[in-house]
Amino acid sequence: MSEKKKESVLAGFKAFLMRGNVVDLAVAVVIGAAFTNIVNAIVKGIISPLVGAIGTKSLDVYTSCLKAPCGLDAGGQPTGVEILWGSVLNAALTFLITAAVVYFLMVLPMAKYLAKVEARRKAKEGVQETMEITELEVLKEIRDALVAQRGANGGGTGSPGSRDAF
């Protein structure tokens, strides 16, 4: 590989890494990994004990046997065909809890904040438009008053719409 081509590849790679979305993605992955620990702690410390009050503490023990006999043989090998629906239920609950926490603690507050910022921006634009319209109205009133004054003083020079007298 030539030196020039090597430099262009490295320059392209550097440009790729320095783009904002790559850095944002890296930050999101790190925060997501830390957030996973929080959600797992909530499931383990709160949800599982609540489910345990109804049945067992671990959802992983809920199973169904499709082909008997289900269990372990003398050598410790599983026998039969067992469906581990408790593990699926546990994963689904973890997903729902994660989605709820992300929505209620991150998405919803951010959406409200962005709506407030947008409302402030629109209000600021509205005030500016009102000021511009008000200035235009004042200028029209001044023009009309000058035209009326010229008409009352005997017409002046030129037609009422001309700019000779101004």
Describe this structure in words.
- By secondary structure, this protein is mainly alpha-helical.
- The chain is 72% helix and 9% strand.
- It contains 3 helices and 2 strands.
- It has a two-stranded antiparallel sheet.
- The protein is elongated and about 120 Å long.
- The termini are far apart.
How would you describe this structure in keywords?
166 residues; 3 helices; mainly alpha; 2 strands
Compile the SSE list and pairings.
Blueprint lengths: L2 H16 L1 H35 L9 E9 L5 E6 L1 H68 L14
Antiparallel strand pairs: 1-2
Helix pairs in contact: 2-3
Strand content: 5-15%
> How many helices?
3
Give a short account of the largest sheet. Answer: 2 strands, antiparallel
Assign an overall shape.
elongated
The assigned structural class equals mainly alpha
Distance between the termini: 77 Å
Order of helices and strands: HHEEH
Output the strand order for the largest sheet. 1-2
| Percent range of helical residues | over 70%
Number of strands: 2
What are the segments in which pLDDT stays under 50 over at least 5 consecutive residues?
none
Average of per-residue pLDDT values: 78
Q: What is the alpha-carbon Rg in Å?
A: 37 Å
Gist?
This protein has 166 residues and is mainly alpha-helical. It has three helices and two strands.
